[in-house]
Amino acid sequence: MINVNQIKKDFPIFQHDPSLVYLDSCATSLKPKQVIDKIVEYYSQYCANIMRGIYKISEKATEEYEDTRKVVAEFINAYKPEEIIFTRNTTESINLVAYALGRQIIDSDSEVITSIMEHHSNFIPWQQLAFENAALLKVIDVDEEGCLKNMDRLEQIVTKKTKILALTYVSNVFGTINPIKEIVRKAKKINPQIITVIDAAQAVPHFKVDVQNLGCDFLAFSSHKMFGPTGVGVLWGRYDLLEKMYPFQYGGEMIEEVTLEKSVFQKPPHKYEAGTPNIADVIAFKEAIFYLKQIGADNVRTHEKNLTYYALKRLNEELLGKIKIFGPRKADDRVGVISFSVSGVHPHDIAQFLDEKNIAIRAGYHCAMPLHFFLNEGATARVSFQVYNSEEDVDKLVEELKEAIRTF
């Protein structure tokens, strides 16, 4: 069981602002003291560029940086650390695949499949890749509960011409947990050559993700959504594919040799990490993983599921007929993300009203415009939970929502 009051002591923001009700972890999570201290440690004790120095503090920085790669690899059960590439965020990780591999394999006789529930970062790169190469873009719809449609008839969607299938593991709007393992298995049975790309930005912070178990080819996520610093993304990819792909950027550190006639590139992962990286934040990222592991993935999931069940129950009981909740009805089928609309009140007005009560939620399209157009919703309000949230937070949210509706 998670003791929320004890957990909150790990997050300095609550010492600064004890009354804060933070319900926007889907956008970015708060940071525990261990992560903040590690950033300070780097800048205070061994602030140096990595890979290139043969002096002690540079070697120390390099060791810490590469140790994070090993920690991440173990955390998602990668085959080896060399399959872990550090980027700026999930968006850059997915764009890397679209650029470095997509432009090798997509042509006018190809199909690219994604879904209507995708975050823009896993929709636009494939949309543009298809447009640029005159390929066919297929978009999977969702049903009334926010689940992908026709997954039991995947053979009607995936064909021998499908080169890329790019799906989110968890919807950042609905909170829906998609059956990725089963979808990947079916897709590869239909077309063994298909490349599967999984956006796991909203999955990794909430439950155990095992890339070997999923059977996918690429998986992307971000540090900042799982208690880590901003500016650090992860791309995991099958090493055989990483070896074949084009470099994403050219410059320092990603080369083995440069002459006037040619350049020879390093092997993955450094082939895809040109220039000076975000050293301090990558080093601190491993502290976020240690923190998550200390709490335990099962404990995180149980706490979040219980809180989501409680929130759905309270919202439906107290605001029945006044709000519309999107996504799966059961807490078991979603992570701690609840998007809703209030009849006659704009989500931005709701968010601003709640902010005046020191309750932080998100309002807008949530970087998922195609989904909102599909739902015929101009925008939605969204609350999202983490281990530092409690039933008391939900109670405050519900009471202030009732007051907001009365006010507007």
Percent range of helical residues: 25-40%
Secondary-structure element series: HHEHHEHEHEEHEHEEHEEHHEEHEEHEH
The termini sit apart by: 39 Å
Q: Let me know the average pLDDT.
A: 97
Radius of gyration: 22 Å
Structural class: alpha/beta
Approximately how much beta-strand content do the residues carry? Answer: 15-25%
Descriptive account of the structure:
This protein has 408 residues and is α/β, with parallel strands linked by helices. It folds into two domains: 4-23 and 296-407, Aspartate Aminotransferase, domain 1, CATH 3.90.1150.10; 36-293, Type I PLP-dependent aspartate aminotransferase-like (Major domain) (Aspartate Aminotransferase, domain 2, 3-Layer(aba) Sandwich), CATH 3.40.640.10. 39% of the residues lie in helices and 16% in strands. The protein has helices at residues 4-8, 12-16, 33-45, 56-75, 90-105, 124-132, 180-190, 211-214, 239-244, 279-295, 297-318, 347-355, 369-375, 391-407, and strands at 21-22, 84-87, 111-115, 136-140, 162-168, 195-199, 218-222, 233-237, 255-258, 263-265, 323-326, 337-342, 359-360, 362-364, 380-384. The strands form four sheets. A seven-stranded mixed β-sheet has the order 2-8-7-6-5-3-4, with helices on both faces. A hairpin with a 4-residue loop joins strand 9 and strand 10. The chain is globular. The model has no long low-confidence stretch (mean pLDDT 97).
